[in-house]
Every structure is written in structure tokens, then in C-alpha cells.
Amino acid sequence: MSVSGFSEHELIEVIVDILGEYYAGIPFGYLDDAGALRVPGEWFFLKIDGTSFRTSKYPWMGFDDLAYRVALGAAIDVIAKGGTPVALTVSIGLQKEMSLEDVKDVARGLRDSCQALKALFLGGDLNISEDGWLDVAVLGVSRTTISNKGLKPGYKVYSTKCLGISSIPALIYYEKVLDDGILKKFLKNLKRPEAPLKFLKVLDEVRASTDISDGLESLRRILRMNNVAMKLLRESVCEEVMEISKQYSIDLRMLLRYMGEEYSIVIFTDAEMPEDYVLVGEVVEGDPGIIYLEEQELRGGWDNLKGWL
């Protein structure tokens, strides 16, 4: 049977059936954002993330933008578990037709991510590939860890920033319901999203947390794990995105379906978060994994094998 018949997480389960015994000692298991290893006095976190040039390099991106986003995506998984990124390493598959300037742009994007994360670069591996790819591994350290378990109805849900900007490229290139001229006002945030390092200052208030690189599916994953549901607030969507929803008569549920690489962290807590955090919603009783917007179920999210859900 070919892998096309499976979802990403079904295949992860197949792999874990073989390697599961070696996950012993990881505090939050194999379905969480990053792995962790206890060393006397500290936790060491490790995460690797990657993509092919063909599938992830939008027309508005340079190779520097792609490299920055891949590195930041891996780092956010570490940050979401309470780890401070300290170093990254890469594996690059170059296409033979790439120019020397393209290669320099990859390096520039990695440099910019190191600057944003205040992390070191430890080198890596260079290859030749037909499609081209970039994998980035990030090492982090912390004296504590943040799990994804223990959610209770009544917990508030916050994000390090408002939601929905990642939907705009998807609506342009997948659904083709928007003109690419709309991208201009979002390019800065899309090309160089901010590293949410501020999250590391509020770990004592966090009961559970995750990045939302897979959009709504990232949230469903943690809700299913805890046998709870969630209500999402309209007010958590960025104002500029709400304006586009109204101007082009795009239903907000459709728009949120295509939310993906948000480069933010969602926090579940029973405490009040600082004013620069966005209240996203509330954990409620209900069918595990269901997300509601004004009493209607939200569908969507990303699976690396199935595509948009």
C-alpha cells in the first residue's frame, strides 16, 4: 500500500510502533512539538523541520525568506515547549541550476534567523537534489518543560499574536479567490515573522502550549489529547484579515480553514496573560478536538500528506 493512503499522523504511528520503546523518558511523548532529553540540572530540546523548494517557495519568496521561515519554524517548536534556542544546523539540497546568488540567499536567511533567535550556527551538510530541499535542526535548553496534557474546561486560550495572516497566500495560490496584489501589505510579516521569544518569560503561567504551524489541526491535536473541545473568538483574527473577509465576502470559516504557518504559540492557562497576548478562546466540554466559532464547527488545517483538511 502506498503512503498516499495515509495521513501524516497515521504514518507517525506506524513509525512509533517500531521506535516507540526509545521514546521512554521524553516528558511529552512523540506527538508533541519537540523532543527533550534530561541532563542533570537542565533539559535539552531538539527539533528538525524541513521542506522542498518546490512545495514551499511561494513566488513572493526569495531563498533567504524560505531559509528564514524554515529555521524559525523549527525554533518555535522548541520555544513552545519552554526551550531557549541556542544553536541550529542544516542540511541543504541544492538544485544544479541554482545561481551562486541563490546559495548566498539561503545562507543570508539562515544568518537572519540566527540573529532573530540569538542562536549560533553549527554547520551541516550540503547535497545536490532535483527538487531542492532545506532541513533545519534546532537545539534548545531550559530548566523546565511545558506539556500538552492536563487541559480543563474553563482554561483560557491565548496566542502570542493575532491569527489568520497565513491564510492570505493560501487563498491566493490554492483557492485563487484573491489577487496577489493584496500581498503587499502582508509581505513584511510573511517574509520575516517575529520570533516569539517573549513566551519564555511567562512559562510559570502556562499549563500547556503548542505552535500552530498546521493551523486548526495543530489545535485539534492538543484538544484530542485532552478529550476537550474549544471555542474560538472572532476577535482573535487580525483586523487586516477581517477586513479582507468583509471586502471580498469570504466566509471567516473558510478563511480560517487555510490558516497554517502562523509562527506563533498558542497558550492554555488558568491565569491572565500580559496585554500583548491575544485572547483566542476558551477550552470547553465537548467532542474531543472540535473547535467552534459562534456555535458552528470549524474545519480545516494542514496535513503534510493529505494537504488542506
Describe the secondary structure blueprint for this structure:
Elements: H1 8-19, E1 35-39, E2 42-52, H2 53-56, H3 63-80, E3 84-94, H4 100-117, E4 120-128, E5 133-142, E6 156-159, H5 167-173, H6 187-191, E7 208-211, H7 216-225, E8 229-232, H8 239-247, H9 252-257, E9 265-269, E10 278-284, E11 291-293, E12 296-297, E13 302-303, E14 307-308
Parallel strand pairs: 3-4, 8-11
Antiparallel strand pairs: 1-2, 2-5, 3-5, 6-9, 6-10, 7-9, 8-10, 11-12, 13-14
Helix pairs in contact: 3-4
What descriptors fit this protein?
309 residues; alpha+beta; 60s Ribosomal Protein L30, Chain: A; Phosphoribosyl-aminoimidazole Synthetase, Chain A, domain 2; 2 domains; seven-stranded mixed beta sheet; five-stranded mixed beta sheet; 9 helices; 14 strands; 26% strand; globular
